[in-house]
Amino acid sequence: MNNKDLLGKEIKGIFEEETKDIELSSSLIDSIVNSRKRTWQNKLDDFLNKEIEIPIAPAIVGIAALLAISIVPKDILKNQEIKVINIGSSQVFIKNYKDVSKK
Amino acid sequence: MKIKIKVKNLIKLSILTLFIILIVLPYATLEIAKYLDRKGSDKALAFYESYLNKPVKLQNDEALYNYALNLAGETDKYTIMMMGWGGGAGTTLDGLEKASLALEKILNNSSSEGAFYSRAYSKIMDICINLQEPKELMNWIEWGKKNTDEEINYISDLYRAFYHYANRDYDLANKALEGYDITDEVVDNRYYTIQGEIALFKGDFETAIRNFELSTSFNTSYTDSLFGSRSYIGRNYWYNEYESSLKGNYKVRGRVEFNGEPMPFVEVYIQDNTGFRTGGNDHIAITDINGEYETLGIRSGTYQIGIGLSNSLLYDKVYLRQNLRSLNLNSDLVFDYSFNSPIKVISPKPGTVIKDDKFIVEWDNVSGADYYTVEITTINNNATFRTPIIDNDGDYRIRETIAEFDIDKSRNNIGGLSFDGEEMLLLPMGVLGNILPGEEHPIVVNAYDENDSLIGSSLPLNSLYEDISSIVVEGYLTQGEKLINESKYEEAIKYYEEQLQKDPNDKEALVYLSKIYMIGWKKGEQNFDKAIEYSTRYKELTNDYNLSLKAIGFMDHDARINNRTFIENLFDEIPVNERKQDYYYELGRFYTSLGEFEKSRTAYMEYVSNGTYIPDALLYLNLYLGDFDGALSILSDYKFSTIRMNKNILNNSILSLKSDNINATDYEIFKAFLEKILRGNIERTEGNELYHNTYNKISNPELKNILHEIRLEMYWDMDY
């Protein structure tokens, strides 16, 4: 058996025995956490879990507008009414029909 | 009010929104487009275009195909028959060209396959047929033959067979379909339809009907089309009608052309002369790549013949209608259809405002034109009336390419006559005339040759209103005219009579009162005493006889007898140099009422010498007077056209009468019959009874033939 291992285990056991009732204060824990060196994952997690405030009404309106623009064709309101009249044997197309006889 | 949300949830929401916008919404857009399309909404196109502009299109082929179908529209043809025309699906050239481009995108996309791929291929060739593009059609046929897809090869062969069938190369058409039979999975109703058509035109009727029956074993809706037409659907039903009503030995051949160039793939139709179609618009011929056609064999008879083509081709075409109302088929015949580009009207431009009481119309010369007519159009409650206007020389026929017209003279004309409802209430245009202040009137110029055949017109079969020459006469309807325009005739009469009490020379009052009474503003309200009174007063003021002459035109036999003195005086008063066609026509009718048939005939012949048609009355007068040579001369004159009378039967019967000894009693009975027709106003039931009574009393078979033909011409045999 390795003498170093036995020693290490004994030191560890004594350390655990001596410290088992010791608690760190939350401010000390915070201090330790805040002062530790942060990885990019930590930073990302922080960012993702960050809360932001969004005004509901503009958000809903914005989403609705986006959906409407996406689904409704832009020239859907263009109402080109075409009427057909017969002059003799000819079919005559009147675009944007108004009463063409009346001027 | 605000909401707190974690950034990670916001990102998830954004990704979801993006997914919806890029994937879900396009799908929804396409489904909305298809729904609107099924409902026939014109908004469907906008939704298809919206889908096709999206960055992500998972159903691109389906969208392109449906978009193309919507643009192309239905395949119903615009039909031109001898006595009527119209119909069609309202397709436009622009629509078909866009549809073609959309279909090409499917076909040129190497990843395309499946149902829409093959449908797109058929449809693009259907469009080539409708646009009369045989070269383009053959290009696509060859493209399909080189394709590795079995179904595409099959469709290519079908259309190759169609191409040869249209060109009457029936052996080549059959060859294109070699190798296919009933066991092939790809074979469908189109195969049997085209096989049936080939057999039909080859004269193998048994094979034809067998193939038509086989084609019906596939699910085909009446809204479908094959080879660019609905005419191929239900041919088995049509064939039965053809066999029972039409099939015979005589063929009609001809050419359909535009500015001398051939028009291929035009369908040719025939219908019997009752005015009812035989089996619908099913074709009896189709033009080849030279624009030529040859019909199936038809039995002897009198028919209407016509053609059908896509509406999209009509915008630049004027149909040069012949002076024929029916075709007497007793041998093989030639009948051509010609279209021209429209005549250019130099002035007036569309919407020209006329501030004084005259306007000028000028147009391009038409080669071969003997004379022109200028017609003014009145649009009233969606009804349109077109009437020729007389120039300042009093002529309808204008020899130059420029003419001046007087608006007041045109106002005195009777406008288009139309009556509404059970009371037969006169529509205002009849009284107000054909040029009204404040209203826009399209103008049409027509050109005729020395045989009175139409050789040009400024109005093509389809046109945009903004392209048509038109005038707007400055001014407003007067108070009385407003009352007439609102059909308040009793108030109008009261108003104008009050006006005349204030001013007995009020011309407007005299003109309108005269017209209201001569036409009869509703059933039973004709009053010739008043019409004569007011028109005579107008004549004394203006020396214008036309209003009084028009009053005579509205009189029936009894009214002419009752007003004999007035009529005789008027005819004598009108100076010789002012005796135009209307004068001689009314004179002819007047003498008929008096029983002076020889004078009547002379008057009608004077009418015909300057006219474009020979009235039936002249034929009957010649027969009445026993002038068989005169009657035969009329039958052979191009100006005499019949609707249902068979000229050949009449001709043969009259020739026989010339050499026969006709029983005097028979001929007196026949003359009594003719006299009743010449006097006019015979209702259908009364006419049919008259015919039967006369027919049963007469023994001479030739006179019976003539009676029969007259009965057909009068439609006394019809049950409606």
- Beta content of chain B comes to 15-25%
Distance between the termini of chain B: 75 Å
- With helices defined by DSSP (H or I, 4 residues minimum), what is the helix count of chain B? 28
Rounded radius of gyration of chain B (Å): 32 Å
Tally the helices of chain A.
4
Strand-pairing-aware structural class of chain A: alpha+beta
Oligomer class: heterodimer
Distance between the termini of chain A: 116 Å
| Integer average pLDDT of chain A | 77
* Helix fraction of chain B by DSSP (H/I, runs of at least 4): 40-55%
Number of strands of chain B: 26
Mean pLDDT reading of chain B: 90
Portion of residues in beta strands of chain A equals 15-25%
Could you say which overall geometry of chain A the principal axes of the C-alpha atoms support? Answer: rod-shaped
Biggest pleated-sheet summary of chain B: 6 strands, antiparallel
Strand order of the largest sheet of chain A: 2-3
Largest interface: A-B, 38 and 53 residues
User: Which residues of chain B form runs of ≥5 with pLDDT under 50?
Assistant: none
- Unreliable sequence segments of chain A: none
